[in-house]
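From the thread on structure requests for the teaching lab: each student submitted one protein with a one-line request. Submission from student K.M.:

"Model Histone deacetylase from Hymenobacter frigidus, tokens only."
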Amino acid sequence: MLPIAFAPCYAHALPEGHRFPMLKYELLPEQLLREGTATATDFFVAHPPSDEDILRVHAADYYQRLRLGQLTRQEERATGFPWSAALFEREITILGGTIEAARLALVHGVAFNIAGGTHHAFRAWGEGFCLLNDQAAAAAWLLANVPAVRKVLIVDLDVHQGNGTAAIFQEEPRVFTFSMHGARNYPARKEQSDLDLPLPDGTDDSTYLKLLGETLPRLLDEQQPDFVFYLAGVDVLATDKLGHLALTRDGCRQRDELVLSLCHRQALPVVVCMGGGYSERIADIVEAHANTYRVAAGLF
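Reply posted by the TA:
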């Protein structure tokens, strides 16, 4: 089984100008089903989590104002979204999907959230199209509820630094944050992850894969995690409008294979979230994301 969280409310919850990049969340399940990588029984509908699950990583005042639509205009502008009840429902559903994926990964070895990877959300504010931090909340849920999980590794390979995640876990030794991202990309002001690997513009497949191949096995040996979260953004592609790196689709697939095969060989449960992808052609985005699922289906 390849458990995949899906929430049916993505595109309509967003303003019209933001809907194109979000089409992948509807097209990707269709592609996986059509080609047989996944079956209908692999999908589960994500549901909102409890307030307690959210408040482990988010400030109560921020969450309350977000829930009631009381963010300031400045706070709204930082998120990139005008507030709506549908948007709030979307955000908590994404977060709940990643927590449920963590539960399922403990059983099946791997689980996915078709969305997720909202790594720019901080404890007390949102930014960069991220309002609540789903992987941070799911990591905190595991540490609070699963005694066998004593150390979590977050592998963030989106082209943008996971600044919110890094800040949330700055003083939490049980979570190790690793971000490999474009050095000159958003955010302009980076936070300090436990390990940051900033990459120059134009980084290609061979350079990227060599660096990741030298780094990740060492991290697994040193940190000895019990659980891994993988943010598999495809905004590292050369075709991406915002990424500025130069990976091919095959290089992106090799990246996924490297991460997932290491987790599989070491029997480490892993949750994969999709993260960013902003190529001009939606087919390039969907195909690159589909490769992540194909790699997992071949391993687990």
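TA comment: The first helix runs from residue 19 to 22. Strands lie at 4-6, 43-45, 110-113, 152-156, 175-182, 195-199, 227-231, 270-273.
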